[in-house]
Structures are given as structure tokens and as C-alpha cells.
Amino acid sequence: MNLMVFAFFGLWGAIDAQKEDNEGAFQAEYYAGLRQNGVVKIHYNKKFADWPRQPQHCYGALMDFKLAIVPCSCVAFTKDGLMASAWNQASHSNKVDHVPESSLMVGLMGDEYSKKEKTNRVEVDKIVLHSKCDATFQVDYAMVHLKKKLDGARLVWVNSANKDELKKQIDGVSITSAIYGSCLVMRWTHSMPSPDTKSMWIVEESPVNVQNWNSCFKLVCPDTTPDGKVYIPQRFDQCFNHNVTGLRKCLTTTHREELLCNYVPGSPVFCEEGQFRGIIGILTNFTTNCGASSGNNGVMASFVDAMSLAAPDLRIGVSLFYSNLQIAFNDEPKILYYQEDEDTS
User: Fold this and answer.
1) Could you say which of 24, 37, 120, 290 has the lowest number of CB atoms within 10 Å?
2) Whole-prediction pTM
3) Residue 15 falls within a domain, yes or no?
4) Which one, of 213, 233, 203, 230, lies nearest residue 221 by Cα?
């Protein structure tokens, strides 16, 4: 990237306003920093009795300092028998309602296992579900509006503010990722102590590749039901990812410590390939049977589906140079360590 262009943005930002108060304006520094500090963590203030599959917690991606894209299945539900699962292909006529805003708190993935885990949390002002999010969760996106900015937050890079252009880019990256392994998902892992070091919590990058959907077939349409009976789907075409409303992709990883399907729902998938870098989707598992896959596979909701929610507020869209800026962050740090014996009480 031309350093004069980058310097221009820095000068413009310094003159314009303080960065967290410069609403809607673009500054390259907003996207710099540890990748996990652009990932939000959803905390639940209560357990819903009528939501038996309520996640323990979820992740999401910061589009702006007070706007996060999260899975719809993490913030909305209806009667369990009406919602999709690996053994129930729900109807689009079954609608879902979002949880009360007061039932959520939002922090940063990067603060987990540190003292800031409990102190750096903010309340939710509003939840907006994707217009096509229903009990099928085939389109699994929602927008969470935060009441204030999280300390230490950065924004997640979206490589284009145009939905059609982004779809072409993600389709291209999906093909090359299987060859070059240019995509990743982050997760926290616990390192073992050695004679010279204490055990630590580490943010690890798990490489992922986009695979043919057949690799995820049994995740969404397993052979048997939980009680051992043969499962016969009503819509076999949906087992093959046909005639569904959302853009879903199948991912696989070579890491064996944990099933990709069991990663925290909402975990962003990032890719760096050629001139592309940034988010391509989020992991979802509310409607899958994670124990049914013979390989380490998982389902990703394409970020293209999120663009109707995210695009209007993407600061990148107001920059005439956004298509050239992605290469400016090649050296961004991605790994963060915490000592296990740190007092988090």
C-alpha cells in the first residue's frame, strides 16, 4: 500500500476527532491490533427455561465500536420443537423472537481468562434480527447494538462494502483456501506447564479449509436420531444444501484437539489470500449434530448473508481507497497469552 495514502488517513483522523467519537468516519487505525479484540463474547445474565439448547456463550464480530454481528441462534428462539435441529427441518413459517436486551452482556474474546473478563462488559441497547432469520436458522445472523464502546476494541475488517463484490471475493477465496490453507478460526487453548513455565491460556489459530458440502452432510442430516432410530429427512435437498435461504459452507480443520463443530458459535472465520483479507463468515452449530461427522468439519454461515445488516454501517464504505487498504495489516499481531494463575475473581 502507498504509505502516503496511509499517512493521509492518519492526518485526517487526527484532525477530524477522537477515534471512538468520530462516528461513521474511516480511519485505518480502527482495524489494527489483536484480532481477538475485534471478536465480541456474548454473556447471558439468565438461563431461559424454555430454551433448552441455549448456548453457554457465543462470539461475534465488531463492525463498529457499538455494533456487532452475531448468530441469530444465539439471541433468538421459539419453542424448541419448532426450531431446526439436525433431526428437525423446521418451517420458515415458524418465527423466532429475540431475547430481552437486558438478558445479555457483551465483552471481548481477548479478555477471557483475565481480570478484564468481568470488568470490561457493556449492556445491549438493541437487538435486530436478520429479516430472513426464522426457526430454520438457515440465515443465522443478527445485529447487536451496544450501549457503549468496549475498552481496547478494534473493528473486524470486511474486504468490500458491496455485497455482490464480497460474494465474488469469498467464492474465490473458498476455492483457493483448499489449496493454500489461507483461512483460520481462533479459539482459546490451555497449555501444559513445564519446569520453566507456568500453564497459560493461549489464543490459537486453527487453520480451516472450505470443503465440498458432502463433508458436512451428516452434520445436518445424521443417519440416526438420538434414540437410535433411522432418521428420514423430509427435505433431502436441504441435506445437500440445496433450496435453503442462506449461504452456508462446509469447513474442515486438521486440528484434532477439539471438533470444529464444537467451537464457540459465532467464531469469525478469517482469510488472507492474495489481495483478500478479513472475515468470510461465522461458525454456527445450533442446527447440527456435532458427533455425527467422521472428519473434523463444521458449518459456516457466509458473511454475504450478514451484509444487509452490516453494510449500512461499514466505515470502509466511506473510503475511496478501501479496496487497497487490506494489505496494510499484514503484520497485525494475533496471539495473546494469559497466565493461568492470574486472579480473575
Assistant:
1) 24
2) 0.87
3) no
4) 233
Within 10 Å of residue 57's Cβ, how many Cβ atoms? 16
Residue 149 placed within a domain: no
Q: The CATH number of the domain where 282 resides is what?
A: 2.40.10
| Model confidence pLDDT, tens digit, residues 218-276 | 999 999 999 889 999 999 999 999 999 999 999 999 877 789 999 999 999 999 988 89
SS3 302: strand
3-class state of residue 4 by DSSP: helix
In a domain? residue 297: yes
C-alpha grid cell, residue 227: 434414540
Q: Which residues have C-beta within 8 Å of that of residue 12, sequence separation ≥ 6?
A: 27
Quick check: is 293 in a domain?
yes
What is the Cα–Cα distance from 191 to 204, expressed in whole angstroms?
A: 10
Q: Which three cell numbers stand for residue 156?
A: 473486524
State residue 105's pLDDT score. Answer: 98
Neighbours of 53 (CB within 10 A): 11
In terms of residue numbers, what domain contains 208? Answer: 163-307
Burial class (CB in 10 A: 0-12, 13-18, 19+), 35: buried
Q: What span, in angstroms and rounded, lies between the C-alpha atoms of 126 and 6? A: 34
Tally of helices (H runs) and strands (E runs) in the chain: 7, 15
Q: What letter represents residue 315's amino acid?
A: R
In this structure, the strands spanning 200-211 and 183-190 are: antiparallel
Domain count, the chain: 1
